[in-house]
Amino acid sequence: MPVVDSVLDLIGNTPVVDVSHLSPNPKVRILAKLESQNPAGSVKDRIAKAMIEAAEADGTLQPGSVLLEPSSGNTGIALAMICRLRGYHLKIVLPENVTSERRQMLEAYGAEIIPSPAAEGSNGAVRLAQRLSIEHPDWVFLYQYGNEANPTAHLTGTGPEILADVPDITHFVAGLGTSGTLMGVGAYMADHAPHVKMYAVEPPSGEHVEGLRSLDDGYVPPVFEKWGGIDALHGKRIVRPADSLTWTRRLVNEAGIFAGISSGAAMAGAAKLAERLDEGVIVFIVCDGGWKYLSTGAYTDDLETVIDSIEDVVYF
Amino acid sequence: MSNTVNVRIPTVLRPMAGGNSSVELAGETVGDVVSALVGVYPGLQENLVDDNGSVRKFVNVYVNDEDIRFLDKLDTTVADGDEVAILPAVAGG
Ligand SMILES: Cc1ncc(COP(=O)(O)O)c(C=O)c1O
Description:
Chain A is of the alpha/beta class. Chain A has ten helices and ten strands. Chain B is of the alpha+beta class. In chain B, about 15% of the residues lie in helices and about 25% in strands. Chain B is built from two helices and five strands. At the A-B interface, α4 and β9 of A face β3, β4 and β5 of B.
């Protein structure tokens, strides 16, 4: 391997591991793309780098700039790594109910944390950041939910990597957050392998969010609407904590993959899909490692206890 | 003939649904179930359906955890014992 100048050169080109022995259908292969191998630990390294480079190229970001971003963790951590290297000051609006590891990683990379109410979940973080960006027009607001560089990073990076490594892919499964992963990879597949079907999994986060006055406070990311949205997907399902945690543990115990909880949800979605197919090759995204979730007890505590307690944690 | 399903009500809508977290209702399609729900709790009507009778943009409805936008939307049929979940759209990331 060549010696690189910066950890930022290590973003992307992530490996794919065959976990077909976990497939409930012997005729369906299941492959895990390990985005956890990115230097700041998640798939979000790709979009953080792409958004910052785009903003530097168009002059939005200047030496010494202050950035503001709502994030439940991974995007914030990835931005924090890059801002530290580039000398920008980063403010992350972070829901109070994320794991302490996420908060500590942001602090390790020197980001400033602006807490948003736990009861409002990540919608509350988005709302608070939008308000702060209006009050402080001098802060650079990259806004991952509406930034073209987010899906574009997956259109030009994640998508081509997957098709190059797995030319016989038939189905793709990933968590739905900003929708950048699914919209970007989906756009690439639509052009180069249009038979590939795209499936989204999501946690039941909306169930307990209390800080909404009505469903009109719900939130659909502009990236989702602009990049095809519902029409770009072939299915979307909720994966509940019991399934997410069970599959997170199976990934560790039966494949040695120490993944985060949303990756367990994606694996659960892949397994469910495999049951319904005659044959196929499913690629799913392991979007981060398990490190940032150790404090939840997800890997070691009594399963029933964690299933209850994880409902109050934002893990997507 | 209609089937009985369990409808999960998200926290945000419970005040409009008599404080219940779930309700048992009958119907043959998701549309029937939603109609039955707003029949019992009229305050939910404007939160769930738009003027065209579609599920509102910021509302996701699931049958056995599958989003009905990928099934037959409100015409999706339900079976006895199915679970219908209503959730507000939420950001991640
Ligand atoms: C842990 C985790 N899983 C899944 C996702 C979904 O990715 P995307 O924002 O590309 O939809 C994210 C980010 O939102 C995440 O942090």
